[in-house]
Each structure stands twice: as structure tokens, then as C-alpha cells.
């Protein structure tokens, strides 16, 4: 192969892996890569973002949507520090991601040169590490090898982030090293004996419950999951912020197990005599602070199926541990012979009735977020992608939107299980750029939105939301950090401190970035504003002005959340 700068070889390696879009903020430490992106323009595009945190969130959303590693480029020091939030999100969300960080030249290492950091120490794996693997590529000829290993590591077992540091002199060094073929990650099937034991335990159960979620699911895997649930008539709950793993409209759907859990579902988890956890980590949010399933030995029988061997037995002493990729496990489970008339059919039907009842809520004046979310789903296309960051506002989205299973439209929910504020808008911009044919709706709180609101400019600059699909951001403005305010009202009533916010005119801010904007302060005004957004030829922000008391422990949703937190 004709020698070319290693930065060009890196771009070629990404193209060979099927990458057509990368996100980042340009830096002088990887100019050779930027030149390689120019050389191969038309085959791969670089989306220049306005903040490295936003860029890393966009790449994380890319990983969620595609199932392949999202790609982010940032410069050394401050750039990598800003991007760390995306790495943490990808780690806790089990999302495949590769972060490329420009590094000081090799002859300047270990002198605390300008913006120098050791990314293997800063972002590398540890007891509760930030990345699955972090390395520095010191030889240009080995760059394709490192890229292939990064893709394998990011995808295999429990997916997650990888960090590669790129010394600027290495990137400028000519190399004739050929790129390697597209990585196909290895998958693991459940052992026959484990499947046999799982079937025996399930057949003997009286009140089984399946909790599905995590990453690594695709359309066929979700179809297999549905067949398994139907064959066995199992009630299915979804893990925290993985609600699109199972079709929420299905008569076996029981709701989501996470923050603000339906109290009846929480009781059902505790009353189950067997919990089959498929693909989920069983972390703090999905287990109600390790109370719905008591750690380390739950009262229920527990069968835990997970792709990562390090996750099995990490917290819970389960009755049966099965290492298997979600897709392989679901396909194997779909073939298990089920009893003719499972004795728990009424239990499953009641679980869905309880879920349906959560869609009823007392009216709230003057602006009812329950009605807002129901209106969004009624008017938006069926394949709409919904995104959010962190905050009390997200409870309305998770409660009132019914996510179709992945088998219907691909992923429709992008939300951070690590509770990262500022995630929703960058994720929505990435989704709109990667899937211009689909409508994307971001729901953000006022504090949440302003952590990455500058990415409105990225959307405008790259033409997001101008095609068949629309890009719409709903900003819920209650003048406070709502979740913190809720906790304060519960723990220290009437003693509000540090959670009040001064906010700009969000509609005027959006217009300054080239977006269409509306301001809504009453329920009746929302539907015409949202209909106009769906008809617009550019992205739209809808500013929802809300009273601060709507999102506190005194409201219906807040009371549910507070009750769940007290358990």
C-alpha cells in the first residue's frame, strides 16, 4: 500500500469499519486526522460540535442507535476532560464508543507539556473505571491494529467505551500499513445445561417476572424476546431507560423498573417468586436502590443472563448465572418448550392492567405535562426517536410515551442511565443527522437544556431537521433544578437552597440560533405549537413555562417518586 500519513490511515480504518459520521471538536493535536477527513470527504463526514461534552454525547447516541461504536474526536487536556462525561455515560449505559484524543508529541511526553495528560490513567479501566480499555498508539504502523482492537473491545461482552490517545507526531508519520477488515464481534450462546435448568425453574414458578434491557439488542433479538414472552405468557418489565426493548403496547408489558416506578409494579417485583433478568445490569436504578431485589441474596429466585462475565455475580448471588449475548439468549429462549396453560396467566394480565392505569392522571392547570406527552405521541410519527437528559421532567416522558419495541422501528429511546444532565439535546441532534428521515423529539428541563444548549448551532449548521424528519426540542422551564428541589421538599420542607434558576427567554435564544420557536404556558396552546413544529422546514423549540410547584414531591408524579425513594 502506498504510504500516507497515519492520520489518513486512521480515517481509512474507520471507513473500513462502516463509519460514515464522526463527531468532535477540532484541535491542533490531530490536524493530520482532520486532513484525512478532508481527503475522504464524501465517504465520511466530520460533525463539528460546539463543546466536547456535546460531541461525546452525540457519539454515545450514535452507538445506541447503531449498535456499533460511536466515534468522537477531541483534543488533548481540556478537550478530553470535557468529553469524559460521554465516556462515563457510555460505560454505565453499556454503549459501544471509541473516543480518539489528540496527544502531545512523543518527544514532549512526561514533561507536563502544554495540555498533557495520561489518558490511560485518567480514563482507563479501574475498579469502577471510565472505559473498558485506554491506550496510546505510539507506532504509526500499528494504528490499524489498535483501531480493530478498539472496535472489538467496545462491542464484545458488555459493550462500552474505549479511549485511544494519538500523539500528533505519530499521526503525521507515513505508514504503508493496510487497514483491517470490518470487525464482527464475537457473541456467546447460553450453555444447553443452563437453558435446561432455566426451563425447569421457570416451569415450577408461580409468579415469574421477566426484566429485559441493557444494550446489544437488535430487531431480531427483540422479536425473539416477544416470542419467548408469548410462548410462556410472561409479564415483561423493562430496565431503567431501556423501555424500547419490549413493545409497550403489548398485552404482556408490565411497565419500566426505574426511577418513579409504578408502586404496583414495585410490589409485583417484590412478590415475584422468580425474576428472570435478561440483558440488564441490575444496577441501583433498576433495583430501587437494591431493595426491590435485596442484595446480595434476593428473596426471589433470580436468574441473571448477561453478556459480561464480570457483571454476573458482581452484586447478586443469583440462583442461576448465564453468560450470553442478549440476541443469542433471546433466540435460545424463544425455542424453549412452554407449558400448555401457564398457571400465572392472570398474574401477567393483571400486570398489564396495572401498567395501563398509570396513564390516568388528575388534570394539572394551567399546563398539563401528561396531556403534552400524550399529544406528542398522538401527532408524531410512529418511528419518532425520543431523547432526554436528566431531571424530574423526564418522568412525564417515560410514563406517558409508549415506546414500540426495537423490532418495529429500531431504537426509539435515547436516555442516559447514568443520569447525565445535558444529554438529550446533543443526542437528538445526532439522531436527526444520522436518521434524517425520522422525527426526533427531545424533552429537556431548563437546567438540563442549558448544559448543552449551544448544540442548537450544530443542528443548524449541519442541516438537522430540514428533511422529511423533524427535530423538535421541548424545554420544560420551572425555574429550578427540579429533582433537587423535589428532594429538598421531602427532606427539608420549605428550605430551598441552590436549586432556583434564572433562565433566559428560551424561545428567543432558539430563534437566535436559526430555529423556529414557540412559547406555551397553557395546555390548550401546546397542540397547535407542536403541529406547527411538525410542519416546519427547520428545527423547532417549544418553551413550556411551568410553575415550580408542578415538579415537587407535592405533585402526583412527585409523590410516586418520593414513595419509591423511601422504600
Described by its quaternary structure, the protein is single chain
Biggest sheet overview: 6 strands, parallel
Strand line-up of the largest beta sheet = 3-2-4-5-7-6
- Name of the level-1 CATH class of the largest domain: Alpha Beta
Determine the strand fraction and express it as a percent band.
Answer: 15-25%
The H-level CATH homologous superfamily of the largest domain, spelled out, is Thiamin diphosphate (ThDP)-binding fold, Pyr/PP domains
CATH fold topology of the largest domain:
Rossmann fold
Mean pLDDT: 93
| Helix share bin | 25-40%
Q: Helix tally?
A: 22
What does this structure look like?
- With 567 residues, this protein is an alpha/beta fold.
- It has three domains: 4-175, Rossmann fold, CATH 3.40.50; 192-357, TPP-binding domain (Rossmann fold); 369-566, Thiamin diphosphate (ThDP)-binding fold, Pyr/PP domains (Rossmann fold, 3-Layer(aba) Sandwich), CATH 3.40.50.970.
- Helix content is 37%, strand content 17%.
- Strands 3-2-4-5-7-6 form a six-stranded parallel sheet, sandwiched between helices. A six-stranded parallel sheet has the order 11-10-9-12-13-14, with helices on both faces.
- The chain starts with a strand and ends with a helix.
Topology (SSEs and partners):
Elements (H helix, E strand, L loop, with lengths): L3 E2 H11 L4 E4 L6 H9 L5 E4 L3 H15 L3 E5 L3 H16 L3 E7 L15 H5 L9 E4 L6 H13 L5 E7 H5 L1 E2 L16 H12 L4 E5 L6 H14 L3 E4 L13 E5 L5 H9 L2 E5 L22 E6 L13 E4 L2 H9 L10 H13 L11 H11 L5 E4 L5 H7 L5 H4 L3 E2 L9 H11 L5 E6 H4 L6 H6 L9 E7 L4 H10 L14 H7 L3 E5 L5 H10 L4 E6 L10 H11 L1
Helix pairs in contact: 1-2, 1-6, 3-4, 3-16, 9-11, 13-14, 13-21
